[in-house]
Amino acid sequence: QAYLSYSNIAALTHLARKPGWDITKTLDNVKIWTHEEGAVLSFKVEMQVKVPSHVAFSLLSDFRLRQRWDRHFLTCEVLQAVSEEEKIYHVTALPTTGHKPRDFVLLVSQRQPCRPPEPYTVAVRSVTLRAVPPSPEFCRSEILCAGFQIHSNGSSSCTVCYFNQVTSGVMPYLAANLTGSSKSIEDTALECIKFLE
Q1: What HEC string does 145-169 produce?
Q2: What dotted CATH number matches 1-196?
Q3: What are the domain boundaries of the chain?
Q4: What is the pTM of this model?
Q5: Where does the START domain start and stop, copy by copy (predicted)?
């Protein structure tokens, strides 16, 4: 478990530091970036939020609050509190056209910064839990690496960056967005800002 949580944080930190991010869209408080490496597509959503970084961190690290701003989330329950900084959740997501609803078993690891310039981190990856085998009513899907980095911009504002390394389980939710026929990433980002503020 210690190794899993360490590698969860390390994978997100590594993804965030990769060179070669391309900006694809800029709105008032939201920027969307993509990164392609071989067959792997990742995206980053950067949001300017008018709340202190520690407030954004406490709201984003509790995944049960995610339904209040992310319309893709149907349900979210804590399966296991591994430690104060680690929880395992079972999440169900809306079905995409012609498919069963998807479900995910996710390890969410949260870390406060050790030193001031470092961000708050909420890292997310799929794990296997014997107690929650795949169910016939859902399509069990996987998240390789996703999560938030929250950088303080002073006492009353912060920059929230959401990262996701796209897998086939997540792609249906993004495909229309990346081809320009949907605005779900922007809409979700604006809902997130509204929720945090």
Answers
A1: CEEEEEEECCCCCEEEEEEEECCCC
A2: 3.30.530.20
A3: 1-196
A4: 0.90
A5: 16-166
